[in-house]
Design brief:
Elements lengths: L1 H26 L5 E4 L5 E4 L16 E4 L6 E10 L4 E9 L12 E5 L6 E6 L2 E4 L12 E8 L2 E6 L3 E8 L4 E8 L2
Parallel strand pairs: 4-8
Antiparallel strand pairs: 1-2, 3-6, 4-5, 5-12, 6-7, 7-10, 9-10, 11-12
Length: about 180
């Protein structure tokens, strides 16, 4: 009898773990991403559930976010100047409107290794930038924005900045904030 109860408890525990995982990743549609580590191993990463304001500004390194998808496009690129920072917003959508998305595709924001006055926004799964690049004439921090294709946008800086990037949903957006280094 004790053995039977032990098996039943183990079985119920396993069923609970499986149903919890299904709820967490499928029903809640939590984004997950697989990334290649520096040593060549694939690393499973779950994005933070912190609010965007919790992310710190950085001046080095890589900021990444979004979720792996394919056949996306940038539909709008907006730029704004605020009292303490400047913001670039990239609105994203699927190439086929029948398949709406909630979150933007995966991206990485990093400084160019050869020229630290350039930030590179690498876009994964994007096939088109279907929006004009914004004017930066009112910017004190950003000089120029350019794109060769849908896989990378380059941001030329006027002076050193701190930056952070995060995603927003409904509509799916990549948000990049820039702050001057004091």
């Amino acid at each position: 009898m004790k053995t039977f109860l032990g098996y039943m408890l183990t079985f119920l525990l396993i069923i609970g773990i499986i149903s919890g995982a299904i709820w967490y990743f499928v029903l809640e549609k939590r984004p997950v991403s697989l990334q290649m580590g520096e040593d060549g191993r694939i690393v499973f990463k779950e994005p933070s559930v912190l609010s965007p304001k919790a992310f710190e500004y950085i001046d080095q390194g890589i900021v990444s976010g979004g979720e792996m998808q394919k056949d996306l496009r940038i539909t709008q690129i907006r730029f704004g100047v605020h009292p303490r920072f400047e913001r670039l917003v990239l609105q994203t959508a699927p190439s086929t409107p029948e398949k709406p998305i909630r979150r933007p595709g995966y991206f990485e924001l990093l400084k160019d290794k050869k020229d630290p006055t350039i930030l590179k926004l690498r876009l994964y799964g994007y096939s088109k930038i279907a929006a004009p690049l914004p004017s930066l004439s009112k910017s004190d921090l950003l000089e120029k924005i350019s794109a060769k294709d849908a896989s990378e946008i380059r941001i030329k800086l006027k002076k050193p900045v701190l930056f952070k990037a995060y995603t927003l949903t409904d509509p799916a957006r990549i948000v990049i904030d820039f702050e001057p280094i004091s």
